[in-house]
């Protein structure tokens, strides 16, 4: 646009448009001298200097420097700084309090899992209580165990928590079909779990899945003969819950 205005001005002020256009193009290509090989003797030096020196210095060099070098340099610099600043952004840590539970019931068994945890930033610690009762073939089993949970959380507002569990305590009570009673508090086991969470303000809606495997050993009985030397079982359960986020 600016070059069009320049050419129109030169056309109005000049007697020969074709010569001025050739002179402008030659200087635009970078000739260091003000003397053009296309200059004709019918034009005074002052006139040609007016169009070649001042006009081209004003309309050729400055606009090109102003629109190609400086702005683009500033744009690239700002973009680079903005990109580096974005990479340095670190979200503030959050504290999460969570509680989840799940229940399974059928004609012969009932299982309940409840878990609570606290998460600082991404690392969490918690506790899970598993209760199980079943009656099968005349044998009754009633047990409870507690496990410690360690977890790590990915994400910020939409989160995925992965963790492992270690069973550290529990109580077992079993009654056989012939009325022998067995008890044990010696248990070992492990498990794993995953929890998906979505934040709504300070609240979290949670959906989880937990799997656990355990073994009660050293079963004691009033009977002189042992019917069960150990009891092993495993189970999995879907969980739902709610959390608070600060």
Polypeptide structure, described:
With 246 residues, the chain is α+β, with helices and mostly antiparallel strands. It folds into two domains: 2-88; 95-245, Porin (Beta Barrel). Helix content is 28%, strand content 50%. The protein has three helices and ten strands. It has helices spanning 2-13, 17-28, 45-88; strands at residues 95-105, 109-120, 123-136, 139-155, 158-175, 181-184, 186-200, 203-217, 220-221, 230-245. An eight-stranded antiparallel beta barrel has the order 1-2-3-4-5-7-8-10. The radius of gyration is 42 Å and the shape is elongated.
Keywords:
246 residues, alpha+beta, Porin
Topology:
Layout: H1 2-13, H2 17-28, H3 45-88, E1 95-105, E2 109-120, E3 123-136, E4 139-155, E5 158-175, E6 181-184, E7 186-200, E8 203-217, E9 220-221, E10 230-245
Antiparallel strand pairs: 1-2, 1-10, 2-3, 3-4, 4-5, 5-6, 5-7, 6-9, 7-8, 8-10
Helix pairs in contact: 1-3, 2-3
Task: Describe, in short, the structure shown.
The chain is α+β, with helices and mostly antiparallel strands and 246 residues long. It has helices spanning 2-13, 17-28, 45-88, and strands at residues 95-105, 109-120, 123-136, 139-155, 158-175, 181-184, 186-200, 203-217, 220-221, 230-245. The protein folds into two domains: 2-88; 95-245, Porin, CATH 2.40.160.
